[in-house]
Design goal:
4 domains; 26 strands; six-stranded mixed β-sheet; single chain; 533 residues; Immunoglobulin-like; alpha+beta
Amino acid sequence: MAHEKLSPRQKMIGMMYLVLTAMLALNVSKEVVKAFMQVDKGLTLTVDNYVKKNNLVYEEFDRAAAENPTKAGPYKTKAFGIKERADELYNFIQDLKIEIIKTAERDENSPAVAGAVIDITKVKRFDENNVPSEILVGSNEAGKGYALKAAINDYREFLISTLEGKNPTAEEALRQTLNTDDGKNEDGETEPWVNLMFQTMPVVGATALLSKIQVDVRNAETEVLNYLYTQIDASSFKFNKLSAIVIPDANYVTLGSNYTARVFISATDTTQQPVITVGEQQLPLDETGKGIYSVRPSTTGAKSWGGVISLKAPDGNTRTYPFSASYGVGEPNVICSPTAMNVMYYGIPNPLDVSVPGVSPDKIKIRVVNGTISTERVKNSRGENFRGSWSVRPSAERQNVQVIVSSTDASGKTISYAPYEFRVKPVPKPEARFGGKNSGSISRNLAVAQQGVFAVLPDFDFDLQWNVTGFTVLYSDRMGDFEEKSATSNLTARQKELLGRLTKGKYLTIKDIKAVGPDKKPVDLSPIILQIE
């Protein structure tokens, strides 16, 4: 750039570039123009050297940010933002060069182009002077040169804004190097920058000019990178010991998943020890200066913790570095599956307990085929919740339920496991009860005191409710058979009247009993036959 010290080679290439521009304007012979392929090769080599030099600076940003993320981290972020923008503009220009060459050669597989690499010496139609104008200038200012101009302007202003007004000399150099102002042609008339640069320019000239712009892009990148690096405080921490560190994402992995670990070098200063606090507790340090944190959790679930590392800097000030971490706490458990009893009941929520060894419960996801999954808690017949944080309600009978479990490991990768299958069975029919009985004998006083018929499911683990929706009372004596119907679970007045006529030794029959369970399906229950005591 304007105030950067150039090597003799760079000065020579710059002079050759100026001579090239002048000679192209004079329409010199093909042999002379061809000789300037070497200029393009020199410019390409210069770009490569800038890239190598800039990569070394990016490595320095990485190193500085690793040593002191608070201080160097923001500058590293800006630096790699510059790299992204510079690469984007460089690649755009490279694509233009490739398009010009392939179009001029009329060969999509031109030997002069290998991927994104150009060998200018293999271009046969190097003096073709229509294609560059068609692509870059175009008609009605529609050529890609105008997009190039806009990209250069945007890149220039981005670099200037990165300097934040703190380096006027560098800002002026950027404006000169990346200048795209319109200029005067040989007739003294104002002409657009694109036309001045590329109108009637032969292929070798256009590619050389584009290569020069690529040099300017990398040169500008270097200028701003160097400035940013000087802004990192020179009073950085000094370290005198390096250690190899391995931090795995998890110490336990399942078959088919990846074991992932971060391996890096840790730098420490053995001449001073940090002060590490978690809450009000100062952590003890081991012989290498690493804090030891130990806690015994009393509840399950995700746990978060953190603290502050304090270290005296070379300037005498104490720098503080907050940190945070998290871990999961689960119940110690043994997974035992009754393979012969893998049954779920249709129409009701079935409790499900799912765990994956080594995986926190909040990292587990469940999907169900032939059913819906929820976090509804299911009660047993004693009114207590079953174990398990999930419940599955099968959608259809005579089709197995598949429970598909997946989990997320420490790296964020999702791991899916083989499906678990459950047979689907209907809920057993309940028993109808009258006075707590469905057969045998019943005293007359107990019978006439009843208010209705109820349905129960004895010896079933689930807490289910059944509603009787209708029944018929049948009473027989020497006068004949008498029937009365109810459309609910309660005795009607006429039915109670029949019960009042019961005498010892007679039989009470309750039939046509219908009930609806939690699956909303009506069922017919067996009749109740009781002898009056």
